[in-house]
Amino acid sequence: MDIIHFSTKEILEMALRIEENGVEFYTQAGNASKSKKLKELFTFLAEEEKKHIIIFGEMDRSVKDDTKPDTLDPYLDETSLYLKALANSRVFTNKNEGKRLAGKVRNEEEVLQIAINMEKDSILFYYELHSAITNKDKAILGSIIEEEKKHLRKLIALQKNL
Predict the structure, then answer these.
(1) What is the pTM of this model?
(2) I need a labelling partner for 131 at 20 to 30 A (CA). Which of 51, 84, 141, 142 fits?
(3) Which of 48, 50, 150, 155 is nearest to 110 (CA)?
(4) Architecture in CATH of 3-161
């Protein structure tokens, strides 16, 4: 996919995949956690990701398939390569990647680090997508980025307290 040809629908499909992987990871991580505090956090984060899925689904139903960016970014080729690299990273590719990752971890610190990395990768991905969508959708994407940042702050605070 070339970013010049990303429609808002295509971006929302990628975002839905990211959130689905997040739900799967947080659910599996919560099930594997020995700490009540971590179980509660991962349950909360899985529920937040489910809310994002609903939001993205509503957005998807409200946009036309041919929505393109309003302006041309002079760095589109470079951004396209970067987005492709992110899309091929562990967070975005396989539907069952979250479950696989959660099954590999050995302890709570490792679970937290993977979750932090997933949130960071998602935030970076959404920031890069920001230049590839219409102005009317930027506010919605901005609020999703803020939600992801809240998740990241909670995970970092918990990591510091372990």
Answers:
(1) 0.71
(2) 51
(3) 155
(4) Up-down Bundle (1.20)
Determine the residue type at 89.
Answer: S
Task: Go through the chain and tell me how many residues it has.
Answer: 162
pLDDT of residue 77: 58
CA 12 to chain centre: 11
| Residues 6+ away with beta carbon under 8 Å from 117 | 91
CA-to-CA distance for 84 and 92, rounded, in angstroms? 10
Largest Cα span, the chain:
50
Question: Could you state, in order of their start, the residue ranges of all structural domains in the chain?
Answer: 3-161
d(CA 98, CA 139): 28
Segment (H or E) for 55: helix 36-62
